[in-house]
Amino acid sequence: MSTLRQIVGRIRLQLRGKNHIVGWSMTPNEAISFIKSQGKTVLTFFGYSAIYEDRQGMLRIARSVLTKYSPAATLVNIGATIGGVGAIYPLAKSMGFTTTGVVSTLALEHPGEISASVDQLCFIEDKQWGGKIADSNELSPISKAMVTCSDILVAIGGNDIARDELLAGRKQGKPIHYHPAEINHEWLISRAKRMGLPPPESFWGSVHEVFGK
């Protein structure tokens, strides 16, 4: 069920006219079927949704990865938003890649955060941003769609949602490529203060705890 804010978000995205909306409230299987129907290798980037400590360094890693693939045969997929790892979208477009975005319907409440450089956009009906469903080992619908549609999973840093998705991808036997990267120190320290948490002991993210060993 769409909230009023999500309905307003739809209207704003339609008026902006920058993305082809494949579906506003898709099931994982519908999104997977659409993306697979493109007939290309799906290269999905995972990482922080927040600011990187070294944004340019992250983009250099992304460019190095992208140069190994043919734009004609590869679809670049990310989580649709402009923040964090979403900064790869304009880079991928400048290199000639077609881009897709797979994201929770929660993102409709923040339409200004949707990247204008996403060619094809799939909104997955979900009550959370991704990761595992509470008290379960099952992935939420958005994460299920993200992992299953991907052929190659590339992580540049990343926290809990990315970790859960990468672990699921590894379990499915998909190739995982991990590149260490720190989240912005000031942002994470400020977030901890706002939430009444102790200062962070590491800025490398929870993906690093699993894939950085």
What does this structure look like?
β2 (41-47), α3 (55-66) and β3 form a beta-alpha-beta unit. It is built from 8 helices and 7 strands, in the order αβαβαβαββαβαβαα. α2 (28-36) runs parallel beside α5 and α5 crosses α6. Helix content is 37%, strand content 19%. The model has no long low-confidence stretch (mean pLDDT 97). The radius of gyration is 16 Å and the shape is globular. It starts with a helix and ends with a helix. It has a 7-stranded parallel sheet with strand order 1-5-4-3-2-6-7, with helices on both faces. The protein is an alpha/beta fold. It has one domain: 3-Layer(aba) Sandwich (Rossmann fold), CATH 3.40.50.450. The chain has helices spanning 4-16, 28-36, 55-66, 88-94, 141-149, 160-171, 185-194, 206-211; strands spanning 20-26, 41-47, 74-78, 98-104, 120-124, 152-156, 176-179.
Describe the structure in brief.
The protein is 37% helix and 19% strand.
Quickly list its features:
alpha/beta; 7-stranded parallel beta sheet; 19% strand
